[in-house]
Amino acid sequence: MGGTVALKPEPTRRVTVGRWTAELLPRQAYEARYTAERALLGFAFDSQEGVHAYAGDRIRPFRATPNGLAYVPEGCDVYSRSPAGGEYLAVTGFDLDGAGGFPFSDRMDPPAIAAAHGTRRLLLAFPAADLLHFEALMGFLIERLHVQIRGRQAPADSARWMTAQRLRRVDEIIEARLDLTLTVQDLADELGLSAGFFSRAFRQATGRSPHAYILDRKIARARALIAAGAEDLSAVALAAGFSSHAHFTTVFRQKLGVSPSVLRANLVTPHPSLVS
């Protein structure tokens, strides 16, 4: 084709889970001036150049590094302009439990890089993406931001908050709502906590993220239904809280190494090594 083709930017993609919102901003020229009403976690997928100013400082040239983590605290004045821009992930709605901090950009954090790229994949796949997985990635990004602001891992004292009684309450909530859309934010709300604090306390107390634990309970219910003789695996998937049969099969195989249909067949005709 001859001539020049004007490239149209992709639309902004936005998903909200609980109180957290993630936006995938396309690569395009921009100019923005605002006071941050909420703290913002940013992640630059592309390099970009322009000028910016934070917290009333003078306007300076900038060059954003690809895969750089950024942070704008609540109440911070921001001005930024770029003639070309770059694809950018913005996450808001989180609580840093008083961590506060100063604005920064271009922080290299390998775990955050992996989580940000995973979040982008889910944003591009939405609404087919699993909301629980989406929430887990956003929660992990916020956890990494917390580490960057504090300069160290979050204190282990939060694990003491997750008592046996509270863990029992978490189990009760999960079991009662397993066949519904259940998020980590829902669990945190039931306990009167921010999702970030709850996630850190739960991980430190159990060695598992809330997201992973919810999936464990979903798989356990599915196995119980299969063992009880359930034949319709699509119905099992829904009863265990999975969005689809395909998603159920994928997670089941990832967790257990076999598909639900293979497990069911093995229950009907046990492997010779399992027969006494």
Give a structural overview.
- The chain has 3 domains: 13-150, Sandwich (Jelly Rolls), CATH 2.60.120.280; 155-207; 219-276, Homeodomain-like (Arc Repressor Mutant, subunit A, Orthogonal Bundle), CATH 1.10.10.
- Strand 5 and strand 6 (60-64) form a beta hairpin.
- It contains 10 helices and 10 strands.
- Helix 1 packs antiparallel against helix 2 and helix 5 (184-191) packs across helix 6 (195-206).
- It has 276 residues and is of the alpha+beta class.
- Keywords: DNA-binding, Transcription, Transcription regulation.
- Residues 168-266 form the HTH araC/xylS-type domain.
Q: What is the C-level CATH assignment of the largest domain?
A: Mainly Beta
Distance between the termini: 72 Å
> CATH superfamily of the largest domain, called what?
Regulatory protein AraC
CATH architecture of the largest domain: Sandwich
Question: In one word, what is the shape?
Answer: globular
Helix content: 40-55%
Mean pLDDT: 85
Unreliable stretches (pLDDT < 50, length at least 5) are 1-6, 270-276
* Biggest pleated-sheet summary: 6 strands, antiparallel
Quickly count the domains.
Answer: 3
Structural class: alpha+beta
CATH fold annotation of the largest domain: Jelly Rolls
Name the strands of the widest sheet in spatial order.
Answer: 1-2-9-4-7-10
Helical segment count: 10
Rg (CA only) = 22 Å
The helix/strand series, from N terminus to C terminus, equals EEEEEEEEEEHHHHHHHHHH
How many strands in all? 10
- Percent of sequence in beta strands: 15-25%
